[in-house]
Amino acid sequence: MHKGKFGTAINCVDGRAQLPVNNWLKQKYSLDYIDTITEPGPDKILTQGKPEQVESIKSRVLISVNAHGSETVLIAAHDDCAGNPVSKEEHIKQVKDCVKILRSWKLPVKTILGVWINENWSVEIVE
After folding, report:
1. pLDDT > 60? residue 59
2. pLDDT, tens digit (0-9, with 9 covering 90-100), for 82-126
């Protein structure tokens, strides 16, 4: 069995986005480990991607939740995203839609949230 408290981050492949999100999650939710699911522009993939792309993310979230007992799932979008080069406003809308999608999966978790990583690589809660 796993030791320690896990969280799950659905984040961009962009390496600049990893540490801010992981450190913020660990601090805010007293987590030991973050299972990180990366895609280029995951907010676009969850809201506009092909069903098999969404299913791939879902299957990895389920591994984190079921195998590691993650009780917190986060979706992140960030400034200057090459995988989803849209405005901050569009990212925020997509993140909010992603939170709805994640909730529709009926995951056995305590927290589902969406965040924006701003131009200073700081985490802002969206929903």
Report:
1. yes
2. 999 999 999 999 999 999 999 999 999 999 999 999 999 999 999
CA nearest neighbour of 7 among 106, 63, 73? 73
List Cβ<8 Å contacts ≥24 apart for 63-66: 63/35, 64/6, 64/8, 64/35, 64/37, 65/8, 65/107, 65/108, 65/109
Amino acid symbol at 88:
K
Domain segments of the chain: what residues? 6-125
Which pair of structure tokens corresponds to residue 60? 């990895």
- Model confidence at 3, pLDDT cuts 50, 70, 90, reads confident
CB 119 within 8 A of CB 91: no
β-pair type (111-117, 123-125): antiparallel
The answer, yes or no, to whether residue 22 has pLDDT greater than 90, is yes
pTM of the full structure: 0.95
Q: Which residues contact 9 (CB under 8 A, 6 or more apart)?
A: 21, 22, 25, 34, 35, 36, 37, 74, 76
Query: In the CATH hierarchy, which fold is given to the domain comprising 6-125?
Result: Beta-carbonic Anhydrase; Chain A (3.40.1050)
